[in-house]
Every structure is written in structure tokens, then in C-alpha cells.
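Lab notebook, bench 4. Still working through the backlog of constructs that have no structural model yet. Next entry is a single chain of 111 residues. Request: give me the C-alpha cells for it.
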Amino acid sequence: MVRPEEEDWYALGMPKVEKVTVSIPAELMAHIEGRRREAGVNRSEVVTDLLWRGWRQLEDEQREERYRAAYQAQPDTIGELEWADMAAAELLAGEKDESNSIPGPKRRASG
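Model written out:
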């Protein structure tokens, strides 16, 4: 089965489909038609692509909300925060040391 994440899934072969009839604002339809003309595809392809994008965005938002709720229920401990601060300090200290050891541009011998 073709996955909706693939950009050209519709062109490669239409999966099982359901036909629906919905009413949408005329302004939105004008945007859909403009996108259809720009992309050189049919209306079903444009609408399906937009629905999949919206669905993925909704899933991302829900996943982020679950993460936030879980983090609020079980935030970092003092020990974890101290460890993170220490690791960040060591990382920054290492970057300062490395900046001194990076060789400059090589010069070619003339002549």
C-alpha cells in the first residue's frame, strides 16, 4: 500500500477511497483551485494532501500535549537538573578549549 507521507502517493496509484460531499467557504475553494492550477494536479489530490497535512499537524499537537502533561506529572528531579547543568558546563568548557586548537587556514608555499 502506498503511504500518504510520500509526496507523489496519489500519482503512483490511488488507494481505496471514499467519496464525500462537504460545503466549504468560497474563499477556501478559490485557494484550493489556485493551488490545483499551480501544482498541475486535480482537486482531489490537493484536498487529500491538505487533509493529510492537517491530520499530521493535529497528531503532532496531541503528542506534544501528552508530553507536556506527562512532564508536569513527573518533572525533572533536582539531581537530573544538576546533572544537566554540569553536562552543559562541561560541553561549553570543551568548546572553548577546542576553539584554541582549531588550526587556521593553511598557507601555500610561494615560488
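Notes after review: Residues 9-98 form one domain. The longest helix spans residues 43-73. Flag for follow-up if needed.
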